[in-house]
Write a structure and sequence with these properties.
The complex is a heterotrimer. Chain A is built from eleven helices and two strands, in the order ααααββααααααα. Chain A is mainly α. Chain C has 14 helices and two strands. Classes of the chains: A mainly alpha, B alpha/beta, C mainly alpha. The interface between A and B is large, with 46 and 44 residues.
């Protein structure tokens, strides 16, 4: 079964798949990684975005990526609102937001699932675009365009977010808020507004990555449940809040998963990635690239 | 808009009710005949469950329009089992002990049905099965009638592998989802392949949460099989076909498909469009002339109209006509027996051949169809983004069984895809 | 305090006698089927709260423990036809072992990291069971119940009673923990683990103990499900629903008092059972979602907290 060619193939596909995982986890890397919001509804927001893209594609023939960009501002506003709600109900009241925050977002996720079912039915949906269903040939190797799109979007998003967080005033403020809220307050900035802004960005990212989700594979209303484990796995393994770390961790997971799927017993694939996460957590609880302890 | 349809609906209902009230005064006085079941409204089986339920509902309305059964109205009681095995025992106990239903229908698919079998057997109730797979083999309930065209356990795999062998296939690759139904299919395929003297060169079970199939398909391709037998679920079926289209499957492959669930559902077929071409897959009903029976056409006319409103599969070939047929069989049995006695109904169902919109049905001793009614058909000339094309014949050419054959297999697979 | 204790034991006895009488007097089987599920959730919620409530470690892996309970029973039944009580006892032992492993994890991880680790653990275990052909693998396995033993008239009635005994057991343990030094120690480490450690609370030992007890109870609650369903498949046994529902029940009831999870489980469990046989559509899930959001927002300390606040207010009013 084993051959060098297959291994090379698996690595290439794994890298690209990992980029896709990174793209869908980046928003969570901000909301959970930097802001400490236990955002279990992140994948539900993602699936919602995918359905919005589907709607625009199906009814107006808009290219999925363009549709993703179109809904991004909407999702930004949606994020602002969601954070406000979360802040008013949890952070403002202080202690023990953790467990209840999780339950809260689970509730939100269920509500979103049902709204999608009521609007679109339970059938799976996918989009059409010129780059869906074709592949790029390099020698014997063929790489699906879908994954190349995912790769490019993930790379662009990682670079943009890293630059934003390190170069702009607001970006630095967001990172500061993650480290020391009090200090920021003393400097005269309003941490709540900064966090709200950051959550807005985290949600806005979902607009375009929702498009990726439906480009890479068909979606169905309860798809979010499989992505809860996956996205949190990536973010935690990366070390909270590191954008480039998220990319690397996701790529490691992608490669591991694909190699197992291709070369060893395929049915063990999910166990491998999560066993890796357990291993990382046991050895380096702060994650691979985490700075905070 | 909404309000107007609602108003219209109310008026129609009122008028209908009035006519019914006048024509059959006795109708209202007798308690209705209650048929109870659970059906997935949420979870992975919901797409199929909802379509199946609509099929049964169309039958209920038809039978009530004909004056009901034994002079009584037929009423359905349906609960959501969330596609899970853990909900059904309580639901069916409620149906039996609280709702006191007269007839039980099983939920769609094996997993929710399996926990019911002992309960139903213990209560001595007849159970009309709905597309579960070999669920009675251990329990041995003699009042189980699985209305699914699977027939004997191995007939499915042998129909496909026979085709492959005739096309000159000697090696086979098995790709199956690591889930209940697909694993059962893979198991029978392994047995049949050994019996036919074929060599299994690739045998993998992929996890249901798999996102990307390129890698595993690449490994499959490297094994150079002649026949590729795929047992998959709707989300993966689409992923696999896309992957095959993108990275190819090799020139050796003569036959591809077999047990892909989802390629019977309108939404999936529409999405995949031309990617379907060349795939040989199982079907339970197709719009081919040989598959129309008395009432089939009328059924689909009604179904198509109501499916839009109910937001379920617009084609509904896979499950809906079987839901209707289950109703028809019960209707015939009750009419013949003249009562709701479970034993007598079961005896009638076991001993007779039943005329339904999916053809004549006879049950074997184990409660499965005596003969397999599964059809293997090849997709031909499918265009992208067109739901309506699937309604015309010739888009899926029947290759098996011989008596329904409407064309010959085009091989190899890569050539058939064009 | 003393009088409270007497009330508690009398209450527990009355509860069990009532359950036993029910199995004799009620001929309709539905209350047992539905009641079994509710009782099962009470055990899960109470067990979950021992770790999640007292110690503040949020375990997302309820379904892992539940599923392992189911499969321990399946394995023992298949290999030796072991009787129900042996299945449950073995499941409790397996759960205790799993809990011990989980307890060691808390050595390195806290807060949300711990929760993520429990999710990972669930998936690893579920995948392993899915690949274990002997217990049916992904295809699932059908089981045939042995004949029911005296004095019960039916197997479901017996399972109902057994689950009720497990409820009493779980509540007794949980109440004992709350009122003993263990509970106080856990509370201390929940408020500030470092400070507790410094003041000489044996935090690791306490955490491991809580994990072991909680795990054993959850696994034990899962074991009878194999005989209840007479069928097991990994996707049903390890369903995410068990984790979410258990969490929701504990929070809705309130984790500050041992009675909270009971109240939550009865409320949410009954609602879910009722919805299944009334509305019975995707609206079911909607109700769960809305309930979660509403309770978490409006009653942050759960129903028990709400009651306490009302009582305190009234007392203030009187003074």
């Amino acid at each position: 079964m084993f051959s060098f060619e297959l291994l090379l193939d698996a690595v290439v596909i794994g890298v690209l798949l990992g980029c896709f995982y990174a793209a869908v986890s980046l928003g969570l890397s901000i909301s959970f990684g930097l802001l400490d919001v236990p955002h279990v509804a992140h994948p539900a927001f993602l699936v919602l975005a995918a359905y919005a893209v589907f709607f625009l594609n199906e009814h107006y023939g808009i290219d999925p990526l363009v549709a993703g960009l179109l809904i991004t501002p909407l999702f930004f506003l949606f994020g602002l609102l969601a954070y406000r709600l979360y802040y008013e109900t949890f952070e403002k009241r202080g202690s023990d937001a953790g467990v209840r925050g999780i339950a809260f977002f689970f509730g939100i996720a269920f509500i979103i699932e049902v709204l999608i079912i009521l609007q679109f039915g339970v059938d799976q949906r996918s989009v059409t675009a010129t780059y869906v269903g074709k592949a790029w040939r390099i020698g014997d190797m063929r790489i699906p365009f879908r994954l190349i799109v995912a790769f490019m979007v993930a790379a662009a998003l990682t670079i943009l977010l890293t630059l934003y967080l390190s170069r702009t005033f607001m970006g630095r403020a967001i990172r500061a808020v993650a480290q020391d809220q009090e200090a920021l307050r003393l400097m005269g900035a309003d941490p709540i507004r900064i966090k709200q802004w950051a959550f807005g960005i985290a949600t806005a990212v979902l607009g375009i990555t929702g498009a990726l989700l439906i480009i890479v594979a068909p979606v169905e209303p309860t798809l979010d449940r499989t992505y809860i484990g996956r996205t949190f796995c990536v973010v935690v393994m990366a070390g909270l809040g590191s954008m480039s770390g998220t990319l690397v961790a996701a790529i490691i997971l992608g490669i591991a998963e694909t190699i197992v799927l291709t070369l060893f017993g395929a049915s063990w694939a999910p166990a491998i990635s999560f066993a890796m996460l357990l291993g990382v957590l046991a050895v380096r609880p702060q994650g691979l690239f985490g700075r905070r302890s | 808009m909404e309000r107007r349809t609602l108003l219209g609906g109310t008026i129609t209902a009122a008028v209908l009710g009035l006519t019914f009230g006048l024509t059959s005064a006795a109708f209202a006085q007798q308690p209705p005949i209650k048929i109870g079941m659970s059906m997935a409204q949420t979870g992975g089986l919901a797409g199929g469950g909802k379509a199946s339920q609509l099929g049964i509902e169309v039958w209920r309305d038809d039978v009530n329009a004909r004056g009901g059964l034994l002079g009584r109205k037929v009423e359905l009681i349906v609960y959501d089992d969330k596609s899970s095995a853990s909900e059904t025992p309580a639901i069916y106990s409620k149906l039996l002990d609280v709702d006191k239903v007269d007839i039980l229908f099983a939920p769609y698919a094996t997993v929710p049905t399996a926990p019911l079998m002992p309960l139903v057997k213990q209560r001595g109730m007849l159970l009309m099965g709905n597309f579960s797979f070999q669920v009675n083999s251990k329990v041995g309930h003699d009042m189980w009638f699985n209305n699914a065209p699977w027939g004997p356990a191995d007939s499915w795999a042998s129909s496909f592998l026979d085709l492959g062998q005739k096309a000159g296939g000697k090696t086979i690759a098995l790709l199956a989802a690591d889930q209940e139904f697909a694993q059962n299919l893979a198991k029978t395929a392994r047995e049949v392949a050994t019996k036919l003297g074929m060599k299994i060169v690739f045998d993998q079970a992929y996890p249901p949460s798999t996102v990307e199939f390129s890698g595993i398909l690449r490994a499959l391709k490297a094994a150079k099989p002649d026949i590729v037998y795929v047992a998959s679920y709707p989300p993966d079926s689409a992923g696999i076909l896309r992957g095959v289209n993108e990275i190819g499957i090799g020139d050796n492959v003569k036959l591809f498909g077999g047990g892909m669930v989802g390629l019977q559902f309108g939404a999936v077929m529409e999405n995949l469009g031309s990617l379907l071409n060349g795939v040989v897959n199982y079907n339970t009903w197709l719009p081919e002339p040989s598959m129309y029976h008395e009432g089939t056409k009328a059924f689909f006319e009604t179904y198509t109209k109501r499916a839009v409103e109910a937001k379920v599969d617009p084609l509904g070939y896979y499950l809906a006509p079987y839901g209707y047929a289950s109703g028809q069989m019960i209707e015939q049995a009750i009419k013949a027996v003249g009562s709701l006695d479970q034993k007598a109904l079961a005896k009638y169902l076991r001993e007779n051949t039943h005329k339904t919109i999916v053809g004549p049905i006879t049950f074997a001793a184990d409660g499965e169809w005596k003969e397999s009614g599964v059809v293997q058909a090849q997709f031909r000339g499918i265009a992208d983004k067109n739901m309506e094309q699937f309604r015309s014949s010739g888009k899926q050419v029947v290759l098996f069984p011989d008596k329904m054959k409407s064309g010959t297999l085009v091989t190899p697979f890569e050539a058939a895809r064009k | 305090m003393k009088r409270n204790g007497v009330f508690f034991w009398v209450g527990a006895a009355v509860f069990l006698i009532a359950i036993a009488l029910m199995t004799k007097l009620i001929t309709n089987e539905y209350p047992f089927f539905a009641g079994y599920v509710i009782l099962q959730f009470i055990v899960l919620a109470v067990a979950w709260s021992i770790l999640g409530g007292h110690a503040g470690y949020v375990n997302f892996g309820t379904s892992a423990f539940f599923g392992m309970g189911v499969y321990t029973a399946v394995f023992l039944f298949k290999v030796a036809g072991a009787p129900l009580l042996v299945q449950i006892a073995a499941a409790a032992a397996v759960g205790a072992l799993m809990g011990f492993a989980l307890g060691l994890l808390t050595l390195r991880m806290q807060g949300i990291f711990f929760s993520i680790a429990t999710i990972a653990l669930t998936i690893v275990i579920e995948t392993s069971i899915t690949n274990w052909r002997y217990v049916g693998g992904a295809a699932g396995i059908q089981l045939q119940r042995p004949p029911v033993t005296w004095p019960f008239s039916g197997y479901v009635q017996m399972l109902f009673f057994v689950q009720a005994v497990l409820v009493v057991l779980a509540v007794v343990v949980s109440r004992y923990i709350q009122n003993s030094w263990i509970g106080r120690g856990l509370q201390a480490l929940r408020d500030d683990e470092l400070a507790a450690e410094c003041t000489g609370v044996p935090t690791l030992r306490l955490k491991v103990l809580a994990c072991v007890v909680s795990g054993a109870l959850m696994c034990a609650a899962g074991a009878p499900a194999a005989m209840y369903l007479q069928y097991a498949d990994p996707s049903s046994a390890f369903n995410l629903n068990y984790s979410v529902s258990t969490l929701a029940m504990s929070l809705i009831g309130g984790t500050a008092h041992w009675a909270g999870p009971i109240v939550g489980a009865i409320l949410l469990g009954t609602t879910q059972q009722l919805l299944t046989v009334t509305i019975s559509s995707e609206v079911n899930v909607l109700v769960l979602g809305v309930m979660l959001v509403l309770f978490v927002v409006a009653a942050p300390e759960g129903l028990i907290g709400l009651l306490r606040r009302v009582r305190d207010k009234r007392r203030e009013g009187k003074q």
